[in-house]
Amino acid sequence: MTAPISAPLTPYATLLGFTRYVDRTGPTKASFVGGLRRQRASRSGFNPHGQFVKALKADIAFHTGGTHLAQVVDVVKPRWRPLYQSLVPGATAWLHSLGEPAGVDLAQTRDALAMLGDLPIKINPHFGIRYADGRAEAVRLHFDEAPPSEEATLAALHLTARHMDAVLPHAEPVLVDVRRGITHRMPDNARPNEIESWLAGEAAAFRAIWSAAA
Question: How far apart are CA 59 and CA 122, in angstroms?
Answer without folding.
Answer: 26
